[in-house]
Amino acid sequence: MSRRVITLIMGIAMLSQPVRAQSLVSAARTHFASGRSYYQTGRYKDAIREFQAAYELSKNPDLLFNIAQCWERLGNLTNAIKYRQAYLDESGHPTDEAEVKLQIAALKQRIASTAVKVQGLDVGAVLLVDGKQVAKGPVAGPVHVVPGSHRITARRPGFADFHVLVAVTPGQQVAIRIVWNPLRSKAAGSNGSTSKSSHRSKRLWTWVTLGTGAGLLLAGLGLGVGALSAVRKANDRGDRGDLGGYDRYKKRAKGLAAAADVSYALGGALVVTGIVLYFFEPRWTHHEKQTAIVPYIGPKGAGLSATLSF
After folding, report:
1. Cβ neighbours for 126, distance < 8 A, ≥ 6 positions apart
2. Structural domain for 76, as ranges
3. What is the pLDDT of residues 278-295, one digit of tens each?
4. Domain for residue 199, yes or no?
């Protein structure tokens, strides 16, 4: 939590206003306290809602910085930059202006470095991201994408389209190796191959992926509940003057909240992938289907890369 969050209540409490204005200040303090609790337990969307409500009542620009921090934790770096800039604009020239500008520059760099590294995009092939052509072969380096989930398609005359569904976290570069499968002639399909219906998948990967994703989401819920319990215990120890107990439970709450974030991210990515698999897996024959599902956890975030070729 930032220094602004810690000192905000003190600043609000020092205001001397008429009774009606004081009631607004009291409401702002209530929203701020709720936002701080949500932030500490990793419920960043709820924290944004409460910090925004507090800002509308108090117009304290420090709350814009707190909102920016929440968006950064959620992986939305564009909004993290937007609210940091709003904090600078409304604060005039705060003492930490240089530091915040450096943070904005670092966030922009993370967005710029988010990419997919494509291997195998030969001469004559084209690369599409979410249906929009972004490159022509040959390409062997990174292709910039915004953070999030994307459908990557490679097309080449005489070969079946290659499709990849990837989830890329901010600052990550996910490697993609294109595998080209020559198109089969109609004669071969009618004379020498078995019917497509006989090779229909039974959605094995669909149910495995959805089951794993649901399990991770439930695990994240349990970790979130544990983090909230640890925060309550920390506050209880703090009220009693037990600083050692307060630090111990506060550290435990942060660890549980971080683990819950990772579990939610991986579980959500797996569920989305499972939904995509549900619609596409039955269409693949045993000769056409190539599937790879790779979850990853790194210092800058967690996610899941699912490679689907058909």
Report:
1. 133, 135, 136, 137, 154, 155, 156
2. 3-112
3. 776 665 544 444 444 444
4. no
